Amino acid sequence: MLKRVLMAAAATCVVWAADRKFQVGRTASPAEVSARDYSVGADGTGLPAGSGTAQTGKPLYTARCAECHGEQLQGDDKRGYPALAGGKGSIATPKPVKTVGSFWPYAPGVFDYIRRAMPYDNPHTLKNAEVYAITAYVLAVNGIIGEAEPMNEKTLPRVKMPNRDGFTGDTRQQKGRKPGL
Predict the structure, then answer these.
(1) In the chain, what percentage of residues exceed pLDDT 90?
(2) Where are the domains of the chain?
(3) What are 87-97's pLDDT values in tens digits?
(4) What is the pTM of this model?
(5) Please, which residues have CB within 8 angstroms of residue 67's CB and are 6 or more apart in sequence?
(6) Cβ(42)–Cβ(105) under 8 Å?
């Protein structure tokens, strides 16, 4: 009996809440939404303008990333910071080493993650050109691109990551979404 009363009360609350407007805040303007839209697709959709090379990225990496990820991109297991380089050929082994060079399937995802989440103690502070340069440096250290090869919104999506074919795309059809991306 108590269970039925509680279920009825919960259903009433759901209907009441769905019908009620809280009149708190306001709808964000298109400009406000655009300013916070950091989405970058695996195919490079959404990459911003900017450019950088591994050569310009190395000093940026040293200044902004090495404290956590190490001078050689080796990471720091004791503090929980992952390695960004190494691990080639280890993914199919019993002890895979998941790094940018061994695991990540798409280069735009590297850019996207750095732009959204790094540096860990101060995210969203890197300019787009700095993010491209750091991304280029990480890719170059992993032997994926050359040091002088510029990374930008056109070139980054063309980078073939070593483990790109190691993933199976999502084949479900969803509104407004391309299968496999």
Answers:
(1) 68
(2) 38-165
(3) 999 999 999 99
(4) 0.77
(5) none
(6) yes
pLDDT of residue 170: 72
- Written as six digits, the tokens of 35 are 């300013």
Q: Supply 148's token pair.
A: 């002088």
Q: How many CA atoms lie within 13 A of 145 on its CB side?
A: 29
Q: Which of 70, 68, 87, 71 is nearest to 79 (CA)?
A: 68
How many CA atoms, within 13 angstroms, populate the side-chain half-sphere of residue 70? 16
pLDDT over 60 (residue 181): no
**Residues 6+ away with beta carbon under 8 Å from 130:** 52, 60, 64
b/e map 100-118, b = 16+ CB within 10 Å: bbbbbebbbbbbbebbeeb
Answer whether 132's CB lies under 8 Å from 111's CB.
yes
User: Is domain 38-165 given the CATH code 1.10.760.10 in the classification?
Assistant: yes
Two tokens, residue 124: 């969203």
Q: What digits encode the pLDDT tens for the residues 123-135?
A: 999 999 999 999 9
Question: How many Å apart are CA 14 and CA 8, to the nearest integer?
Answer: 10
**The one-letter amino acid at 149:** E
* pLDDT class of 24 with cuts at 50, 70, 90: confident
